[in-house]
Amino acid sequence: MARLTSRLNRANHRQWMVGMDAHRRGAQTAALPTGDSDIFKFNQLRVRKKQLRFARSSIHAWGLFAMERIEAKEMVIEYIGEVIRQKVADHREKMYEKSGIGSSYLFRIDDDTVIDATKAGNVARFINHCCTPNCIARIITVDGEKKIVIYAKQDIEEGEEITYDYKFPIEVDKIPCLCGSPMCRGTLN
User: Fold this and answer.
1) How many Cα atoms occupy the beta-carbon half-sphere of 111 within 13 Å?
2) In this structure, is residue 184 part of a structural domain?
3) Which of 11, 99, 148, 151 is 20 to 30 Å from 43 at the Cα level?
4) Domain named Post-SET: which ranges (predicted)?
5) Domain, as residue range, for 91
């Protein structure tokens, strides 16, 4: 039960931190696309997807890698999965824990909406954590629907691994971080 609560806390905290990061960035946020610009870029992303591939990663098992140069502030990929309610996410979390699934890919959008990419998602679920990431996750609204989109924080070169900071909440049971960054915090939480 403690592991279940920890995982749920991490999912909840990740969504909260996305919002807090946007608030804290202030001027930095203005440098990233917002509003109509988000919708325009999202539509471009649908038409011309970034060339990405998943492959073995030195950070953790599998990772997502750029197969082309990606410029700072560009949308990289949408985090896709099954849109479920919080109660369903709670049930699935228990089910995943019981069945021994090592990782689940629950990403909270708001108080009652969660994206579950554990079984029905895209390659965005392979994006690994890094304490000094090259991307950030943002929640945008397109045609009345909330979407999770990964943006490049900086230029990303071909062959470079796509990463973002999971920003899990601090917990007693620590999850070791393997990002290898000189600024590594040592744990994900």
Assistant:
1) 0
2) no
3) 11
4) 173-189
5) 2-164
